[in-house]
Amino acid sequence: MTEIRNRLFIANEWTPARDGRTFETVDPSTEEVLAAVARGGPEDVDDAVSAAREAFEGPWRRVTPVERGRLLYRVARELEARLDEFARLETLDTGKPLAHARGEISGCVGYLDYYAGAADKIHGETIPLGPDYLNYTVREPVGVTAHIVPWNMPLSMVCRSLAPALAAGNTAVVKPAEQTPLTALKFAELFLDLGFPPSVYNVVPGFGEDAGRALSEHPGIDSITFTGSVETGRAILRAAAEHVRPVVLELGGKSPQIVFADTDLDLAASEVAKGIYSNTGQYCDAGSRLVVEEGVREPLLEKVIEHSRRIKLGAGLDDPDMGPLVSSEHLERVLGYIDTGQREGAEMLIGGRAEEPERGYFVSPTVFDGVESGMRVAREEIFGPVLCVMPFSHDEEAAEIANDTSYGLAAGIFTEDIDRALRFANDVEAGYVMINEYHTGGVGSPFGGFKQSGIGREKGLVALDNYTQIKTVVVRVR
Ligand code: NAD
Fold it and tell me: Which of 159, 160, 227 best tests ligand 1's pocket when mutated (most atoms within 8 Å of CB)?
């Protein structure tokens, strides 16, 4: 079994928290404590930001873009070689099925490879001002970048923003979620082993209200990338306003999966089930509202229920179809929404708290029919395996229902009519639209939200803009 790293990682050293505090991280499949982890606070954040600043202004700055890319490729190869070790650790900390965790770690390798290749292609332009001037731009790194990540895809969310930040020449301080700190810490071993200058990657595990807040409010950081809830996103924006720092906010969603009557219902049912149940519904872009054309509501629901029934729950390491929710608090929250849905008058066709396994934070695949737009279960992000069914009778009504939310992260469209699909893709208020396949796309596909789902985009080359600032130089030629 892999060694669990349970200390802070600052300036290439494994250290306890300055005040010696620790917190426990729990395996949600068994409810057993995995480790007591150093609980970073403001002083530790201060140390990490100073270390990252020193690296940024010193040795990391002198590493050429080509060499930065090569270092990132080395991290990618090492992570690939140790994929199983990282996947098992991710599974233990999150409860997600092992095959799923492997997919995520392999996605991390994808981020590292993609941005490694971009490291020496981040260039400016020349602007034609006529023969008497030379005007060019340079894309400089912003400096010390802060990355505050959630628990649903722990290392994946780190790599998504870290890889472009480092490729562009920045250094980083990462604050993993308190529920799942282990893989971000283990990842530091790669930076120690592969010849990076010290302090390029620093990790301060801890709670949102102390380590997270201290990092987002720190005057020494130059940008914040935050992935998490809307509520915390607002706090991050306020903190960033104080020092006028750029932010990227990747927040929640209440994404519709819109099924038109002309679609292949077998395909749609399996995609709809995948869209809501993958990662136990704990995806920001989970397809949590099934907006279905009335004429096919019944046959589609039958098929979706059939998929739901077949889903095998179990401990992540046993590689079931669906693992537990991440924590007992989150289990209570999701069960609270299931109660609310019933009280609001929606009909639960299947689901609720799972009777088995006995240990662990398990909820069964849950489907609510008869959900109306005003209900809380239709408006609020549940972040669990709970699908809300909302029928429509014509295309305009489908768009109204799909857009009747404060979120705008993703949308799925299922139809055999390409014109209809493209028209609907225009009409839907979402930053990421998927036609005839849910949870699809690649590292190069920019991702982010409209409306309250966020600000900015990650993935793709466009994400490099988050970690560079343009310097314009104008020369008078005499
Ligand atoms: P959260 O907002 O509670 O926590 C996210 C991170 O912020 C954690 O590391 C936490 O410790 C930290 N934090 C909490 N309070 C803070 C504060 N006051 N200042 C600074 N940091 C603070 O979110 P969560 O429950 O961990 O994650 C679930 C949410 O994340 C969902 O809403 C989900 O949709 C969203 N999410 C979005 C994306 C995306 O790409 N858009 C991806 C994954 C998850």
Answer: 227
